[in-house]
Amino acid sequence: MELLKIDHIEKYYGSRSSLTKAIDDISFTVDKGEFTAIMGASGSGKTTLLNVISTIDRVTSGHIYLEGQDITELKSGKLGKFRREKLGFIFQDFNLLDTLTAFENISLALTIQKLPHDEIEKRVRKVAEELGITEVLEKYPYQMSGGQKQRVASARAIVTEPSLVLADEPTGALDSKAAKQLLERFNYLNSERGATIMMVTHDSFTASYAKRVIFIKDGKIFNEFNRGNDSRKEFFNRIIDVVTLLGGDVSDAL
């Protein structure tokens, strides 16, 4: 079932005398329940792509549909409601509120939606158990490790049961052990919860946890493929092959 449709989008920055095309006629679809990684070198357009899907930025031309709704036509008054109800965000730098506990950070969006206290408690406890962070619910961000903070941020992103979870370099600030733990939780959320995840990353190891990878180069789709029946190691090797073609530094990818 098609959840997201990207239809011939373009994005320009700058003035007429100095235009930069960040996205160059990109089209693809994402089905409900997919775990998709977007890869590309710095400046390839992958973060711009995530920004226009998240409505943080607007396309210059083309259309983006989420659950059949053209989000490129949304006016500013409706954007906040759309983001709260349809999207979950996971950032590289966590973006947790330092003055709130983990429980309060996770529950904030539910409180804004004015859900009953019992329902909020139930949802937060459930997602905390799934992500293995029950023991930090009463702690503040400064009392947590980087991995714990990123899992709290992930819990905050999915507790509202959004249609689409958008992750921007989610493992970028984590050590290898914490990164692996987080990616295994992403797999759990995708396979057991049916969460639809779109993750931007430059890292081949991180991308190998996805079920599909789309490679962006110079604002265009360079290549894409599905994991299929490959093991994660086999999928990783296929990703490395394309990264090499893209001109990336394989040692950095590892």
- The chain-level mean pLDDT equals 91
The gross shape turns out to be globular
Please give the radius of gyration in angstroms.
Answer: 18 Å
Reading the helices and strands in chain order gives EEEHEEHEHHHEHEHEEHH
Major sheet: arrangement of strands: 6-7-8-3-9-10
CATH 2nd-level architecture: 3-Layer(aba) Sandwich
- CATH classification class: Alpha Beta
Structural class: alpha/beta
Q: Major beta sheet, specifics?
A: 6 strands, mixed
The parts where pLDDT drops under 50 for at least 5 residues are: 249-254
Number of helices: 9
In total, the number of strands is: 10
Indicate the proportion of strand residues: 25-35%
Helix content: 25-40%
Task: Write up what this structure looks like.
It is a single chain. With 254 residues, the protein is α/β, with parallel strands linked by helices. The chain has one domain: Rossmann fold, CATH 3.40.50. 39% of the residues lie in helices and 27% in strands. It has nine helices and ten strands. Strands 6-7-8-3-9-10 form a six-stranded mixed beta sheet, sandwiched between helices. Strands 2-1-4-5 form a four-stranded antiparallel beta sheet, with helices on one face. A hairpin with a 2-residue loop joins strand 9 and strand 10. Helix 3 runs parallel beside helix 5. The radius of gyration is 18 Å and the shape is globular. Residues 249-254 have low confidence and may be disordered.
